[in-house]
Automatic annotation (TrEMBL):
Keyword hit for Oxidoreductase: no
Annotated source species: Blautia obeum
Superkingdom of this protein's organism: Bacteria
Domain HAMP, first and last residues per copy: 302-353
Catalytic activity field: ATP + protein L-histidine = ADP + protein N-phospho-L-histidine
Identification of the protein by name: histidine kinase
Length: 585
């Protein structure tokens, strides 16, 4: 089996296949052209022979009809009977003429009907059951009327109408002299033998069509092919020839003796059937050498190209972190290449592991910096509060504020050692921060808690609630005069194995443009944003820390309406990542 990854084998096979196919197509075209020429000449010879036989059949048939007509008009007995009727127009004399015509018809089994029409429109006809119907049919034909005026003759197409048994027949009309007068004689003759002869010619090829000198279709088999008289017959100056169109080959013969045109049609579909065996042979001749060549390439590929293909596959599929590739022992230059690539993969993995360790240490350091980030203004303002309380002599309040500040700072510093903390402890730390803010802003901010008791023992990233609340204090509830007042609400619950944290305020809200910039800055920290957006840096701090811990397994959404407030929603997995212990270090 030829390996699909052997590019050299594929290239060699494609080149061989291309050259082989070009040569084969060239030889096949020569064979096909020769075959087409040979088939054309054979078909033409067959068609001309069939047309000649068909023309002879038509000539013989028409001659027999004329002979019957001349024999009838040469009868002195018939002439005397018609003369007696013209002198004595009695019914008896009329029936004698009809009886004579009937006896004449009976004498030849091929005769179907005979009628004689005089100038005064007296019609004599052979006696049979269908004489009335056939006579009526003949009188309706345009040629029957024309010949009554012009002395000429006419051979009809092969018909079936007019007789009850509907066997094929032809009628021959001619004007003949009797007793010094001209009579129109109609002779209907059985055409089954003629149909059989023409059908045999049509069966040999595809289709045969016969026209008379009035451009009428006399006969067609197996079906009528032409809608009208072919133009190429009118333009042709030769009695024998052929015409080619999109349907096939049309061989024609003009019979001057019978004033007929015979067309033998050979459809291209019939010609293609004759080529089926030739096409089959060509396909066999194409695939046998090809299969033999491929059977030769198989061992060549296995012996010479397979090690190269294996080495190429190793190089193509190797990626950082994969085990070192195996060495191909071939005893030649391929083995040297394989050994060099093996050493290179070992060195690459070692270097990649060193770089990954450095990046990991840098990421941990960055996380700790984010987690312990403290606004110096917050410490300064808190110390200022303690100073004011000391001047006022409020020692109990000093103790409360100092205790709260100590706990807040301790929680910030402990973030370097503890990554996750239970929700109840985080809420306790948030309340210490709230104590400081209440003293600072004279209890103008109401903080409402709605915590589901079932989530108190679940863990979330440490020191994540205070930055959310701090963002609401300084950006949501701050008025234009610098005062802070309003309501902050914290809701925490669990849904679908996720801890949902929602912190909202009823402050001034965020404009749509600024909110859009904030969301862009969270997704793309390098994005250049406005000064107003930069004021919400606490949200980006939270986002980066959560992203470091949970990667893409979290969501953070900000909804705000100017004049009505802002809500920050954070969804975290109920179970922290497995790498928690690793991040603690």
């Amino acid at each position: 089996m030829i390996h699909s990854y052997s590019r050299l084998t594929q290239k060699l096979s494609r080149r061989f296949l291309f050259i082989y196919t070009i040569l084969f197509v060239f030889l096949s075209v020569i064979i096909l052209i020769g075959s087409v020429c040979l088939l054309f000449f054979q078909t033409r010879q067959t068609a001309e022979n069939q047309l000649s036989l068909a023309a002879e059949s038509i000539t013989s048939y028409q001659k027999e009809l004329r002979d019957k007509t001349y024999l009838l008009t040469a009868s002195h007995e018939l002439a005397e009977m018609i003369k007696n009727y013209q002198q004595y127009s009695t019914n008896e004399n009329y029936e004698k003429v009809n009886l004579y015509l009937s006896n004449f018809q009976t004498g030849d089994s091929m005769l179907r009907f005979i009628s004689i029409r005089s100038i005064d429109n007296t019609v004599f006809h052979s006696l049979n059951s269908s004489s009335t119907h056939i006579q009526e049919y003949l009188e309706k034909q345009p040629h029957y009327q024309d010949l009554s005026i012009h002395n000429s003759s006419y051979f009809s197409p092969i018909l079936k109408e007019g007789f009850e048994n509907e066997t094929p027949y032809c009628y021959f009309l001619s004007c003949q002299p009797l007793n010094g007068q001209t009579f129109l004689i109609a002779v209907c003759y059985d055409a089954q033998s003629l149909v059989n002869s023409l059908t045999t010619a049509g069966d040999t090829l595809s289709n045969i069509t016969v026209y008379n000198n009035q451009r009428e279709e006399l006969f067609s088999f197996p079906h009528s092919f032409f809608n009208k008289f072919p133009i190429y017959l009118e333009d042709s100056s030769s009695s024998v020839g052929y015409h080619i169109d999109k349907t096939g080959l049309h061989f024609y013969l003009s019979g001057y003796a019978t004033s007929t045109y015979l067309i033998e049609t050979v459809f291209f579909s019939v010609l293609l059937k004759n080529y089926f065996f030739l096409f089959l042979c060509l396909l066999i001749l194409y695939f046998i050498p090809l299969a033999a060549a491929l059977l030769y390439l198989i061992p060549v590929n296995e012996k010479m190209l397979h090690p190269i293909a294996m080495l190429a596959e190793q190089i193509h599929t190797f990626s950082l972190g994969d085990n070192a590739v195996n060495i191909l022992h071939t005893g030649d230059e391929i083995e040297d290449l394989s050994l060099s690539f093996h050493k290179m993969t070992v060195n690459i993995n070692q270097q990649a592991e060193t770089l990954a360790r450095q990046e990991r240490n840098e990421a941990i350091t960055y996380y700790k910096l984010l987690a312990t980030q403290t606004d110096p203004h917050f410490i300064y303002n808190t110390m200022n509060i303690i100073n004011i309380l000391a001047r006022q002599g409020n020692f109990n309040e000093i103790i409360q504020v100092n205790t709260a500040l100590t706990r807040v700072l301790r929680e910030r510093l402990n973030t370097q050692n503890i990554v996750f903390e239970k929700i109840d402890k985080e809420i306790a730390a948030l309340k210490q921060y709230q104590t400081i803010m209440d003293y600072r802003y004279h209890h103008q901010v109401t903080f409402e808690y709605d915590i589901d008791p079932s989530v108190l023992q679940l863990v979330i990233p440490k020191n994540i609630l205070q930055p959310l609340a701090e963002n609401s204090y300084y950006h949501g509830l701050t008025r234009e005069d610098g005062s802070i007042s309003g309501t902050i609400g914290l809701v925490i619950y669990e849904m679908n194995n996720e801890v949902i944290i929602e912190l909202s305020d009823d402050g001034s809200g965020i404009s749509p443009e600024t909110l859009s910039e904030i969301k862009v800055s969270l997704q793309s920290p390098s994005q250049i944003v406005s000064e107003e957006t930069t004021a919400h840096i606490g949200l980006e701090n939270i986002y980066r820390r959560v992203q470091y811990l949970y990667h893409d397994n979290f969501s953070m959404d900000i909804q705000s309406t100017p004049g009505y407030g802002t809500t920050v929603s954070l969804s975290l997995p109920s179970i922290p990542p497995d790498s928690t212990s690793e991040k603690k270090r």
